[in-house]
Amino acid sequence: MSEITDEIKVREEKLRNLKEAGIEPYPYSYDLKENISDIVKKYREKSEEELEKEEIETSTAGRIIAKRIMGGASFFHITNGKDKLQLYLKKNIVGNERYKLFKTFDLGDFVGVKGKLFKTRTGELTLVVEDFKFLSKCLLPLPEKWHGLQDKELRFRQRYLDLFINPESREIFEKRFKMIREIRRFLDSRDYIEVETPMMQPIPGGAIAKPFITHHNALNIDLYLRIAPELYLKRLLVGGFERVYEINRNFRNEGISSQHNPEFTMLEFYQAYSDFEDLIKLTEELFEYLINKGIASEKVNFEGNEIKLSPPFQKLDFIEAIAKYSPLSKEDILNKEKLIAHAVGLAGEDNLVPTYGKALDYVFDEYVKDNLIQPTFILNHPEEISPLSKPHRKMPGRTERFELFMAKMELANGFSELNDPDIQLQRFKEQVKDREAGDEEAHLIDYDYIKALQYGMPPAAGEGIGIDRLTMVITGTRSIKEVILFPLLKPKS
RNA sequence: GGCCCGUUAGCUCAGCUGGUAGAGCAUCUGACUCUUAAUCAGAGGGUCGCAGGUUCGAUCCCUGCACGGGUCACCA
Q1: Beta-carbon neighbour count of residue A220 at 10 Å?
Q2: What kind of fold does domain A2-142 have according to CATH?
């Protein structure tokens, strides 16, 4: 991929020179006392006098990212990707030969250094190098120091460069993974247990989406990469696990956009003896928790809008939401033929399968979604678009379901779980009709799941939260590719 | 998939109505023992995304393709 430039030749030459000088360019380890971040954290606030008095001797290691070479003394910066530390190298401390050697190290090389800490005239914490060890060679030239790596394609294809060149990028991912850690702690402290369920499923279920297909040779069967873990997690409720969650990948064979990656991370959790109202409360508590832990801010700026992440969040009935933001009346929306006609009129005949479910989805997305900037629970979805939710105890034709929207995105989806096997089978059969009407994504009948329900599933509520989108909101990022370490890109030939 | 934009040195970017390319950083050589976008003096580095076309002549105009970005459609 990379052509050999003069600079690469020089770096390769330097590598050879190291070997010839008897210096191992790829040693096995370095016995460092503290990492760069610890040093910066512990000693940054100390005064020049304190440092001088305490004579703090330490050793650390990192990648060289800046060189300022002078005749008899030079300055370098090394980084661990997060923090950087200035090094001061003096000829009369390390000796002429070693000084000359260090000067040949390139930007990107790893070094281990040992010495005392002091502050320069300008007040920067600096390590006077007394001894050093070469730790690894960087053979390719690095991006530029002022602007970093700007090219989005390179940033995604060579994320490792992005991570140690662009601190903002590094921060997004640190935040993401700390958030996931806190979510685990939040659920663990509520007696949840984290489980793993199949990624490869004979019948893809639990969501409405096109799956990836793969093949198992020994069994000679096609399998589907899961589009959701839902039906397996609910089998665990049948099996006696009362509180379970899974944080893992789902795969959907659909378009790639600023909000969609073919594989994405989902938190799904199920809680026995609870209903959708309980999970609405739990969801608000989770946001509160993430704010208290310093993961999320109370307010976040997203595309110029200030989003208030601290609960409580507003609530809006699904049908009323459409009535509010569209020219349609409640009666229009509940009238199936009329709504289908309206949706088909909007979308064009070729673009919409004429089922009530598809029409509902379509008008909701068309009229409502872009208005949902502040966190909003959309409630009580119609049965036609909620094949796995329990019928609403007060509203006929509706289900006990909620979706949490913010920043024009769906972040969470939860409901009281349908545990009546007869109704569930009936709903699956209605999905089959939709499939016959041309809806390729309608749910398939999973008889094995029905069988599990026939053994009895306790009343329960479950919810899925999109981890990538949650990261986007918390970090104020517009593109899902910015929050996925290695987003899917077309391979470059 | 449609439309719009981008692709020029390792990186970040200029490049006028078409006359075979420039800067900064990085690299190399030299000077410099508190620099921090270090400084000073010099040097090297390019199949202008790919393939065609128009033209005496194309980085520039046209067509196609590739990859990326944005947007719409699709997608819970």
Answers
A1: 7
A2: OB fold (Dihydrolipoamide Acetyltransferase, E2P) (2.40.50)
